[in-house]
Amino acid sequence: MDIKFSGSRWRQIERGWRKDSDTEVIAPDVTLAHMCFTLGIPSERLAETGRNKAVEILRELERAKAPASEEPEPSPLADLEEWQQQIILNALDERPRSAREKALLLRTLAAKIEAQAVDGEQAPEAPAPQQPGNSA
Questions:
Q1: How much is the pTM?
Q2: Are 46 and 36 in contact (CB under 8 A)?
Q3: Mind listing the pLDDT tens digit for each residue in 44-83?
Q4: Is 49 in contact with 25 (CB distance < 8 Å)?
Q5: Which of 79, 39, 35 is nearest to 57 (CA)?
Q6: Alpha-carbon distance 42 to 112, whole Å?
Q7: For 43, which of 54, 74, 113, 136 is 20 to 30 Å away at the CA?
């Protein structure tokens, strides 16, 4: 880490408790941002916690430490039209879910899709729709 930080302090923050003084420990925004950066936790994930100042600091760390030659990949969802994005969100709403559950589900699905892309697998083609009157 770029800031001075002891292992015992790190453990106190992880536990959320300081044993010697029997007090609650909440990481300052700067510390939390540096911890997330060290662990590779992206600012989008930290944003789910509501620690907005820490998110701002982490985003600045990500920008400052990013390799100059690396350009961010465009989001595949950015090319979708509004109605297509709404279909995806509606599918997630078929069963009541919190915003956190939806975000976790989307991250899980994205990781699976990325893993398939890395392995060179293609998504199976959808079967052709049957014509009315044809039996299977």
A1: 0.46
A2: yes
A3: 999 999 999 999 999 999 988 877 655 666 666 667 788 8
A4: no
A5: 35
A6: 18
A7: 113
